[in-house]
Amino acid sequence: MVIDLNKCIGCHACTVVCKHENMVPRGVHRSWVTEYEAGKYPNVRSLKLPRLCNHCEEAPCLKVCPTGATYRTIDGTVQIDAGKCVGCRYCLAACPYDARFIDPVQKVAAKCTFCYHRVEAGIMPACVSTCVGQARYFGDINDPNSDVSRMLKSRSHQTLKAELGTKPCVYYHGLDGIQLDPAKLRIAKGGR
User: Fold this and answer.
1) 174 phi/psi in degrees, rounded to 5
2) Which of 35, 57, 61, 185 is deepest in the core (most CB within 10 A)?
3) Where are the transmembrane segments (predicted)?
4) Whole-model pTM?
5) What is the C-alpha separation between 127 and 137, in angstroms, rounded?
6) What is the pLDDT of residue 46?
7) Do 174 and 47 touch, CB atoms closer than 8 A?
8) What does DSSP say about strands 70-72 and 78-80: parallel, antiparallel, or unpaired?
């Protein structure tokens, strides 16, 4: 997934449609948008920063799951088998992006799935198809003709917390030269 921060207007349509599409209970979110102040005075910029599971190539959550509930699909996404999850919270502690939570109803770990059920049916994730600003792009990075592949080749991009070596698969356009304070990323989430 590529998210163009220059197009995100912070409307939260992605958050709302995700909750509806995936029947996410009250008080938790699989996708959310934070407002983040970046830069130093007098060059401060306010940006809307959509957040979700990064489906990392080197996913720490995958490595710590004691039951195999967290797994990688053939196409590379990181998913959770709710039937195998015991709610131990190891994956929550391991995720440096705060993208996981315990579902308050099912009492198991949950997170963004890139709407795997839709993608398998040939439909874009709900957040992508609903994005009012057309800021989200989704596709096969290995396909040179896909939107995401072309964007990553033609535009500058960054990932969150790249220094951790998790190799996130959510890329942001519009973060050029902005150093995001990891502590503020955690705080900015607030009551998601």
Assistant:
1) 110, 5
2) 61
3) none
4) 0.90
5) 10
6) 82
7) yes
8) antiparallel
Question: H-helix or E-strand containing 188?
Answer: helix 182-188
pLDDT at 181: 59
Q: Is the dihedral of CA 130, 134, 139, 145 positive or negative?
A: positive
For residue range 34-52, list pLDDT tens digits in order: 888 777 788 887 889 999 9
CA angle 140, 145, 146 (to 5 degrees): 35
In CATH terms, 2-188 corresponds, of 3.30.70.20, 3.40.720.10, 3.30.460.10, 3.40.190.10, to: 3.30.70.20
Is 185 in a helix, a strand, or coil?
helix
Within 10 Å of residue 162's Cβ, how many Cβ atoms? 10
Q: What token pair was written down for 142?
A: 């290995």
Q: With 50 as the cut, is the pLDDT of residue 190 above it?
A: no
Distance of alpha carbon 30 from the chain centroid: 8
Q: What is the dihedral of CA 160, 118, 152, 59, to 10 degrees?
A: 40
Q: Is 157 helix (H, G, I), strand (E, B) or coil?
A: coil
Structure tokens, 81: 């088998």
Domains of the chain by residue range: 2-188
Helix (H) or strand (E) holding 127: helix 126-130
Residue 13 and residue 132 in contact, taking contact as beta carbons nearer than 8 Å: yes
User: Residue 180: what pLDDT?
Assistant: 62
